[in-house]
Automatic annotation (TrEMBL):
Catalyzed reactions: [protein]-peptidylproline (omega=180) = [protein]-peptidylproline (omega=0)
Entries under Gene3D superfamilies matching the protein: 3.10.50.40
Domain PPIase FKBP-type: 74-174, 219-301
Domain of life: Bacteria
Name of the molecule in the record: Peptidyl-prolyl cis-trans isomerase
Enzyme class, first EC level, given as a word: isomerase
Family in the record: Belongs to the FKBP-type PPIase family.
Assigned keywords, A-Z: Isomerase, Rotamase
Length: 302
């Protein structure tokens, strides 16, 4: 056997050994994860869990309302998600309490990109597969093995080789503005408040009628006192010393309703998320948050 043939044979044997080692490591991780998930199902009596039809390794169960049609990839889905460790129950990800997540069903596999504050897109088809078994308002629980999730590298707060317990709760609304309107109406009913709904979809309650003479436009300079809250009552911003100055061109769209009023007015605004900070949120304001403002118009300058 010449040297060239010997070298080729050695290279082939080395490649085969490396490939076999990688395959063995992968199969071992798969076997370990599958055993852990089955033990978790048994320990927690999750009798409704079923393996996915393609037998890729994740398990799921769904709970659906009795009416409606199943989600399609092209549908919008409004949802909340909780992601916990199957090992010790640690919650790694939780949707914000004063907002909700939303995307197209077909994009659900990559929602972790923003949730984990990373530029990496993680492809997790199990999430989309389970949600496609849901109708709006349904809930999916997914037991995801680490090799179908974030693997040996982990991501953000999720450690390496971590099997995950997902709960994806969807809402029975096809549009965010419909969901926001339902949130506001539910809040008003619960608090026994009577508000007027503007054509802009902002709800308002006038506490004190203003007596100023200047007409407010988007270019008017306004001195305002205000407090901003979420619907759970938590305050996220406030300026009550009478030094805050702005034009309506410089603030969220929902404040445009102030053109209806005069200096001296005290008004409460309930603003849908698309007229506030929308799907992106802002600092402490989460995505798709409905906002509740108390505003006093102190002075108007044109």
């Amino acid at each position: 056997m010449n040297k060239f043939t010997q070298l080729s044979l050695f290279t082939l044997l080395l490649a085969t050994t490396i490939f076999s080692s990688c395959k063995k490591e992968y199969d071992s991780a798969q076997t370990i994860d599958d055993a852990a998930i089955k033990a978790y199902i048994s320990k927690n009596n999750l009798t409704q869990m079923q393996p996915d039809s393609a037998k890729t390794g994740f398990y799921f169960q769904v709970t659906n309302p009795t009416d409606g049609s199943f989600f399609l990839n092209t549908d919008s889905v409004l949802y909340d998600v909780t992601v916990k460790s199957m090992t010790n129950g640690t919650t790694y990800l939780q949707s914000p309490s004063n907002g909700n997540l939303g995307t197209y069903v077909g994009y659900l596999n990559s929602f972790f990109q923003s949730s984990l504050s990373t530029t990496i897109t993680y492809n997790i088809p199990a999430i989309r597969t389970a949600v496609l078994k849901l109708k709006p308002g349904g809930t999916a629980r997914i037991l995801l093995p680490s090799y179908l999730g974030f693997g040996k590298n982990g991501a953000g707060p999720i450690p390496s080789n971590e099997n995950l317990d997902f709960i994806v709760k969807t809402y029975p609304y096809r549009k965010q503005w419909l969901f926001d309107d339902a949130k506001i109406q539910s809040y008003l009913t619960a608090k026994n408040l009577t508000a007027t709904k503007d054509l802009s979809r902002v709800y308002y309650i006038v506490g004190t009628e203003g007596t100023g003479s200047d007409v407010i436009t988007n270019e008017s300079t306004l001195i305002l006192k205000y407090t901003g809250r979420f619907l759970d009552g938590t305050s996220f911003d406030s300026s009550t010393d009478g030094t805050f100055s702005t034009t309506l061109n410089s603030v969220i769209a929902g404040w445009g309703l102030l053109t209806k009023f005069k200096a001296g007015t005290k008004v409460r605004l309930f603003i849908p998320s698309d007229l506030a900070y929308g799907t992106g949120g802002h600092t402490s304001i989460p995505p798709n948050a409905v906002l509740d403002f108390d505003i006093e118009i102190v002075k108007v300058t044109n």
